[in-house]
Amino acid sequence: MRTYDGSLTTITLNSGANVSATADTFIDVLTFAGSSGAVTGANVDNFEEVVIGSGSTISFSDDILAAPTTTVTNGGVLDATGGGLALTGNLANDGTVTMQDGIAGDEVGVSGDYAGTGELRVDVNLATYTSDVLAVDGDVTGGTTTISPLARLLTQRPERN
Question: Is the pLDDT of residue 22 over 60?
Answer without folding.
Answer: no
